């Protein structure tokens, strides 16, 4: 009995389908492994650096030159930390986050320092003006 | 002290690390901490400086273990930032102190200004009161002086007016005297035409003959006598009205005094009354009977006796009165 051409094609399709399935399974396994790998490591704790950066932005660090520099550095370091975390370099990421937190904290301090200096200058000027006006 | 200990640690770290290259981060961290610890942060931001010190210590310890590790570099980086934060915190504290001082200075200066302003205001008010008082006093003095001048002026005017009045009166009196003198002169001239008129020490004596006025032994005026006495009365009224007049009746020596006295008096009264009826002021003229006591001539002849029989009207001088 001769098999028709269609029957031969069916057999080939079945083989392809098996390959695809195996591929899908393999991908699924690998994905699962990756996910499992991620789930097993400590998540990157960005809260401190993120809140520090937000605090620096809220106090106007972007308007003070030195503070703006450290604010930018904090943001870059946070991004670096996230990148390191994605690469699986958790410890390096955590260490980088320390830099980000420190720079954000410094940005806040420098911004406050600038504000206090301005207020102090204004207060001194007010006294000088008052004395000048009442000579 | 803490700084000194840290420096010892650093030195020891260097020894232990051997020839390991100190990462730039750690070098910077050490420098910044040195600067912060010798600056004002030691006094005004000790807590932040302590944190920086701990961070540096941690970095040094890491350097000891892992000289060239990312952990050492990161820890050193953080330590530097902590020191910079300590410096910034110290600067904030200093600026706040300066600001507070400036605010206190402002309040103090403001208080002084207010006090001085109040003082100036009080002084100005006092000066104003004094000035007003002086102004009032000055004004009062001016008013008083003005009043005094006004009074003086009034007195002057009054005195002048009084003088004017007096002068006017004097002038009037003078005119009156002149007029009176003229009237007297006229009267005397008129009288001289009517009768014998003679100026004597007792006054102006107008002698009217008895035979012209009366019938012999009678004291009723003749009609012809009345006509003459009308003219006499007119002349008497024309003279000075202030002078007093006396009508004297005189007889000759014939007959007794008891007859002659009443006759002389009645004749004097008759003449007086007639003159009064003709407008001579009654209070200015009196009548006196003198009998034969004042003859103007002897009684030896009929003519002399006739002359003695007379009526005299004496117009007295102002200060003299006729003595009978």
Would you give an account of this structure?
The complex is a heterodimer of chains A (135) and B (324). With 135 residues, chain A is mostly helical. Chain A has 2 domains: 1-40; 44-133. Chain A is built from 4 helices and no strands. In chain A, helix 2 (47-58) packs antiparallel against helix 3. Residues 35-40 of chain A have low confidence and may be disordered. Chain B has 324 residues and is of the alpha+beta class. Among the domains of chain B are: 2-104, no CATH class; 195-316, OmpA-like domain (60s Ribosomal Protein L30, Chain: A). Chain B is built from 9 helices and 5 strands; from the N terminus they run H-H-H-H-H-E-E-H-H-E-H-E-H-E. The longest helix of chain B is centred in the middle third of the chain and has 125 residues, at 70-194. Chain B is rod-shaped. The model of chain B is unreliable at 319-324 (pLDDT under 50).
């Amino acid at each position: 009995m001769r098999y028709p051409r269609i029957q031969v094609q069916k057999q080939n399709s079945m083989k392809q389908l098996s390959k695809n399935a195996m591929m899908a399974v393999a991908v699924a396994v690998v994905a699962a492994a990756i996910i499992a790998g991620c789930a097993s490591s400590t998540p990157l704790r960005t809260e401190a650096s993120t809140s520090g950066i937000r605090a620096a932005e809220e106090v106007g660090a972007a308007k003070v030159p030195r503070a703006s520099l450290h604010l930018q550095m904090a943001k870059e370091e946070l991004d670096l930390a996230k990148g390191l975390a994605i690469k699986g370099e958790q410890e390096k990421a955590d260490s980088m986050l320390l830099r980000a937190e420190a720079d954000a904290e410094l940005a806040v301090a420098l911004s406050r320092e600038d504000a206090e200096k301005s207020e102090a200058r204004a207060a001194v000027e007010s006294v000088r003006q008052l004395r000048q006006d009442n000579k | 002290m803490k700084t000194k200990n840290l420096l010892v640690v650093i030195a020891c770290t260097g020894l232990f690390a051997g020839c390991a290259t100190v990462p730039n981060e750690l070098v910077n961290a050490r420098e910044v901490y040195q600067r912060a610890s010798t600056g004002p942060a030691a006094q005004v931001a000790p807590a932040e400086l302590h944190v920086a010190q701990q961070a540096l210590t941690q970095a040094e310890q890491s350097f000891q273990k892992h000289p060239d590790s990312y952990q050492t570099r990161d820890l050193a980086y953080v330590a530097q930032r902590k020191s910079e934060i300590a410096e910034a915190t110290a600067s904030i504290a200093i600026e706040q102190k300066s600001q507070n001082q400036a605010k206190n200075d402002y309040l103090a200066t403001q208080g002084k200004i207010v006090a001085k302003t109040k003082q100036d205001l009080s002084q100005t008010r006092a000066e104003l009161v004094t000035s007003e008082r002086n102004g009032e006093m000055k004004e009062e003095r001016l008013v008083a002086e003005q009043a005094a001048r006004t009074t003086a002026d009034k007195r002057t005017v009054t005195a002048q007016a009084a003088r004017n009045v007096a002068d006017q009166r004097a002038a009037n009196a003078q005119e009156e005297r002149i007029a009176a003198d003229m009237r007297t002169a006229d009267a005397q001239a008129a009288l001289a035409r009517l009768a014998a008129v003679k100026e004597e020490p007792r006054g102006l004596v107008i002698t009217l003959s008895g035979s012209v006025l009366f019938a012999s032994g009678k004291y009723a005026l003749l009609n012809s006598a009345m006509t003459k006495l009308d003219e006499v009365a007119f002349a008497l009224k024309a003279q000075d009205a202030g002078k007093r007049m006396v009508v004297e009746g005189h007889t000759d020596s014939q007959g007794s005094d008891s007859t002659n006295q009443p006759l002389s008096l009645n004749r004097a009264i008759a003449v007086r009354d007639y003159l009064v009826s003709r407008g001579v002021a009654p209070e200015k003229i009196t009548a006196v009977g003198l009998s034969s006591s004042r003859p103007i001539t002897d009684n030896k002849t009929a003519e002399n006796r006739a002359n003695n029989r007379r009526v005299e009207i004496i117009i007295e001088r102002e200060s003299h009165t006729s003595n009978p």
